[in-house]
Design a protein that fits this description.
- This protein has 349 residues and is α/β, with parallel strands linked by helices.
- It is built from eleven helices and 14 strands.
- The strands form three sheets. Strands 1, 2, 3, 4, 5, 6, 12 and 13 form an eight-stranded mixed sheet that branches. A four-stranded mixed sheet has the order 8-9-7-10. A two-stranded parallel ribbon has the order 11-14.
- Helix 1 links the parallel strand 2 and strand 3.
- The longest helix is centred in the C-terminal third of the chain and has 19 residues.
- The chain starts with 12 loop residues before the first strand and ends with a helix.
- The N terminus is likely disordered.
Length: 349
């Protein structure tokens, strides 16, 4: 999903490019800075973040400064700024939220409502909690594929996809890293997955640090296949109607995916920690969690919020008959660097 870079007139929100430098924070200021992976904000102001930020500011008077980038990229920035922390809240995908915790970049805080989040979707000591549940997927150009999406990973090796297939960069983008995770699961482990991705490289356009940049290309037919995630791609179908969601299967023909939640944490030594805690509480209110599907096209992180809006029903149809597996996040946290290195070696990236 393309991301805005200008001030929205109705929302007290300052958008900052990821390369921007901030000044010394005023600890008493009525503001917070949120570093986030992309996918929850819309160009036209209709996204989940757009509504959440507006509601939060209206209720508290606290303005939201927003910085977005790839999931790994924002964690790298947090690490660089460790001695002069500028962010108050970070929202990123696994395994990068675990990586941020492992680097000592997060402070423990259990937001109000986090007791309603499943144990597997939050850190046991309170360093992070899922705020929007989501699932990994691929997308295809529906006008070109009248017979529906490719069914299996092997289908993507077809010559018709040469120069028309692209996935975001593992180790930089959360959804790009998810390509590795799903391939290793579906294809029987690290070695078969790397052999496959080496073969797929003949069709791959090349690296992309942001998954959100790929959806517009698929919608226009510049790409026939790209990676994505259900929330982001479902939400932007309103403005990009020529993309469809699919889940490539392994040799057994069974479509699979795994949960890829947006997880939020309080940044260690946050300059506006008390304001940040209020924002984390707000994200898990019942009202905000109902907006996850109704506005954002995602899945509530709270198990007690049962969405019944039209988007929720449509999302249930998207996920029908798709097997959801659970990655070994502890292994990925320990070995992600080696998996990414193996991918680079296999693909020459």
């Amino acid at each position: 999903m393309p991301r805005p870079r200008t001030l929205l007139p109705l929302v007290p929100l300052l958008l900052l490019p990821l390369t921007a430098c901030g000044g010394t924070a005023d600890a008493g200021a009525k503001e917070i800075t949120v570093y986030s992976a992309d996918g929850l904000k819309a160009d036209d102001g209709s996204g989940f973040y757009d509504k959440v930020f507006k509601d939060f500011t209206k209720e508290t008077g606290i303005k939201v400064r927003y910085v977005e980038g790839g999931s790994g990229e924002i964690v790298q920035r947090l690490a660089r700024e460790r001695s002069n922390t500028k962010a108050d809240v970070v929202v990123t995908l696994p395994p990068f939220v675990q990586q941020a915790d492992g680097k000592g970049l997060l402070a423990a805080y259990r937001p109000a409502g986090s007791d309603k989040v499943a144990d597997g979707d939050k850190d046991p000591v309170g360093k992070w909690t899922a705020v929007v549940n989501n699932y990994f997927c691929f997308i295809y150009h529906t006008k070109e594929r009248k017979d529906g999406p490719p069914k299996t990973w092997r289908d993507l090796l077809d010559g018709r996809f040469q120069g028309k297939l692209q996935y975001s960069t593992p180790g930089v983008a959360g959804d790009g890293t998810a390509v590795l995770i799903k391939a290793m699961h579906d294809l029987g482990g690290r070695e078969p997955a790397m052999a496959y991705l080496k073969e797929l490289q003949k069709n791959n356009v090349g690296p992309s640090k942001s998954t959100g940049q790929l959806a517009p290309k698929v919608d226009k037919g510049e790409l026939l296949v790209a990676n994505g995630d259900v929330q982001m791609n479902f939400a932007n179908m309103k403005t990009m109607p020529n993309q469809g969601i699919f889940f490539p299967a392994g040799d057994n023909g069974k479509p699979t995916t795994f949960a890829l939640p947006y997880a939020a944490g309080l940044v260690k030594n946050a300059p506006h920690a008390e304001n940040a805690k209020k924002f984390l509480d707000h994200l898990l209110t019942e009202r905000a969690q109902r907006d996850v599907s109704a506005v954002g096209g995602g899945f509530s992180a709270r198990t007690d919020v049962k969405a019944t809006d039209p988007n929720a029903a449509a999302l249930a149809r998207v996920m029908k008959d798709v097997e959801v597996f659970r990655p070994d996040w502890a292994d990925l946290d320990r070995n992600l660097a080696s998996y990414v290195a193996a991918w680079r070696e296999a693909t020459g990236s």
